Amino acid sequence: MKKLIVANWKMQLSYQASLDLARKYSKKISGLKKEVVICPDYLSLPIVATIIKKTKLGLGAQDSAAVTAGAYTGEVSPVNLRALGVKYVLIGHSERREHLHENAAIINAKILAALAAKLIPILCIGERLTEKINGQTKDYLAEELRRALKNVKIKTAADLVIAYEPVWAISTNKNAKPLGAEEAEEIQKFIKDRAVKILHKTVRILYGGSVNPKNSSEFLKQKNIDGFIVGGASLKVKDFSLIC
Ligand code: PGA
């Protein structure tokens, strides 16, 4: 499977700035050996879909509802995202766990709903600084995986992606710094092995957290790093195209 590079624009851009950046991506990032996916905010998704239509760029959403339809004010159905041309959806990003109080049950339901709608969930997991300091990283990740993937069945290895994003390494967090490539590799392998036991398929495991043009090639040399989620550096087309 191709390496997958996901641009997570979060809520960092105005509507107009999202469209401008999508146009720049369309011009600068093409003919790639890697699969590149943009995750804009919901509001700009439809227009970004039109802007990138003739390119090889793919479309992702930053979240989707835990059900496919119904009386859920303010939610967005994975079925509608799919109809718009969205292929991937980030689920369980640490910012949603922290600021929007998403718990394991919600994340599990969102994965099941996304799969039912034929979206490819990108499940985000990662330890916080507390778990890291207390030496609980692997136990914490194993538990996050177990709970998020409860009752999840996939037909092929391409149907689901996992992203390892140590919370303390995400660039917007205080004193953030990226994990070393070799340390990351060891944890990525741990996650891959665990995921195989649960899913019976070898899914792609991405790395996320302060990825930039300087450290990206070192990460990609590792056997178990199948791509990235890029936040801050995805807002600068030059940096992002260098990573790609
Ligand atoms: P970062 O964000 O690249 O800015 O650290 C990654 C993420 O939050 O997905």
Question: What is this structure's SSE topology?
Answer:
Layout: E1 4-8, H1 15-28, E2 35-39, H2 45-51, E3 58-61, H3 78-83, E4 88-91, H4 94-99, H5 104-116, E5 120-125, H6 129-133, H7 137-148, E6 161-164, H8 181-199, E7 204-208, H9 216-220, E8 227-230, H10 237-243
Parallel strand pairs: 1-2, 1-8, 2-3, 3-4, 4-5, 5-6, 6-7, 7-8
Keywords:
binds 2-phosphoglycolic acid, TIM Barrel, 244 residues, 8-stranded parallel beta barrel
Provide an overview of this structure.
With 244 residues, this protein is of the alpha/beta class. It has a single domain (4-243), classed as Aldolase class I (TIM Barrel), CATH 3.20.20.70. 39% of the residues lie in helices and 15% in strands. The chain has helices at 15-28, 45-51, 78-83, 94-99, 104-116, 129-133, 137-148, 181-199, 216-220, 237-243, and strands spanning 4-8, 35-39, 58-61, 88-91, 120-125, 161-164, 204-208, 227-230. An eight-stranded parallel beta barrel has the order 1-2-3-4-5-6-7-8, surrounded by four helices. α8 links the parallel β6 (161-164) and β7 (204-208). It is globular, with a radius of gyration of 17 Å. 43% of the residues are buried. The protein binds 2-phosphoglycolic acid (PGA). 2-phosphoglycolic acid binds next to β8.
Please identify which CATH superfamily we are dealing with.
Aldolase class I
Poorly predicted regions are none
What distance separates the N and C termini?
Answer: 16 Å
Mean pLDDT score, rounded?
A: 96
Largest sheet: 8 strands, parallel, barrel
The DSSP helix count reads: 10
> Could you tell me the radius of gyration in angstroms?
17 Å
CATH class: Alpha Beta
